[in-house]
Prior knowledge:
This protein is an all-alpha fold. Helices cover 72% and strands 0% of the residues.
Amino acid sequence: MNEDIFKGKMKQVRGDMKIWWGKLTDDDLDQVEGNADKLSGALQERYGYSREDAKSEIDKFMDSVADKISGKDDHK
Length: 76
């Protein structure tokens, strides 16, 4: 998944992020600002993930919202 696209659609998927990672606060998401490295750090802090686990979780999330990010689910 292209991180630039993710960054541009951050507001669109912010609610999905809060559902996926319930321990992340609004402040955490504000600090992330669509930056995957910052999100990785927040996940490591809140969930105790290793760097590799955090990246894997981000990849899973991005895959799960790929249609929303790319605009393919606009008909829903």
